[in-house]
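Students often ask what a holo structure prediction actually looks like on paper. The answer is less mysterious than it sounds. You provide the chain, you provide the ligand, and the output is a string of discrete structure tokens encoding the 3D arrangement of the protein together with zinc ion.
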Amino acid sequence: MESDFHQLEFQDGSHPFHRAHMEMALEEARLAESENEVPVGAVIVSLEKGVIGRGHNQREGLRDPTAHAEMIAITQAAQSMVSWRLDRCILYVTLEPCPMCAGAIVQARIPWVVYGCVDPKAGACQSLYQLLNDPRLNHRSQVISGVLADDCSQVLSGFFQKMRNNRKAFPKFPP
Ligand SMILES: [Zn+2]
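The corresponding structure tokens follow.
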């Protein structure tokens, strides 16, 4: 698999390897949506072992502010690797990671991060902070953005639209 990986030109976000794993992350995001969670999904692929972690946002269900898709996938992947270091792994996530998740990516030393749509309000890879490329930290990741970005953002905007419609259906009291 390693030689395949070198051939696939990692920086090309349109490569079928990236698209296939982002599709998997999107499946996770849709699972979150079906649980009335903000639909974000993540998948971690080891170059040696294949998919070793997948998760979706479960903040509401677990009543846990740290239960973002990436955190759940990272914990699973570390268990699978029997190591906190996720060397030679790629993290796929539908939305640009927040500061907490970008921090966890640095802690896990994940070398490659591929995400779908940007998060101008909370993104910590490119939008608000560049935590994965900060020379003051002891780890840097290669980042590719924009893989299946339209699908990734549509699943989010559809969810928030549905939430707004539901809210209208229940009039506030007092008005
Ligand atoms: Zn996060």
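The longest helix spans residues 149-169.
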